[in-house]
Design brief:
Elements lengths: L1 H7 L14 H5 L5 E3 L8 H8 L4 E4 L2 H6 L7 E3 L4 H13 L1 H18 L2 H16 L1
Length: 132
């Protein structure tokens, strides 16, 4: 990733920060959040970025598809497709209006689909079904 960042961008535009405890504060300063992974469930990092109103560019995996809808509240790219991820990111960075629409939609999705109340209701419904 470091090599790709050096080759693909301006010096200093991409920063690798390592393990942090202040992710919420840092997300608010990001223009785009990248997520590469193969999780089977919705990745919490993607939901956190969405809740912070940061447009997400993620690998098209089952977990990421649970979290966002391509083109509506984020962008999904084929897993490992660096060029597709780059094009999606370039589009977001070049078009502030589009980036803002995705950010607003992402915040709304995170707030409705992944709120504590919604998740508690979903768990309670699942437990009721299992106990019935």
């Amino acid at each position: 990733l470091a090599r790709f960042a050096r080759l693909a961008g301006e010096p200093g535009q991409v920063r690798f920060l390592g393990s942090r405890r202040d992710v919420g504060r840092l997300l608010g300063a990001a223009d785009v959040y990248w997520h590469a992974g193969d999780e089977g469930s919705a990745p919490i990092a993607v939901v956190e970025a969405m809740a912070a109103g940061v447009p997400v560019v993620a690998d098209d995996t089952p977990g990421c598809r649970q979290a966002l809808t391509d083109g509506a509240d984020g962008r999904l790219c084929p897993a490992g497709a660096r060029a597709a991820r780059g094009r999606a990111t370039e589009h977001l960075l070049a078009d502030a209006s589009y980036r803002g629409r995705l950010a607003d939609a992402a915040r709304e999705t995170a707030g409705t689909r992944f709120s504590a109340d919604r998740m508690a209701d979903d768990y309670a419904r699942a437990y009721r079904r299992l106990l019935a």
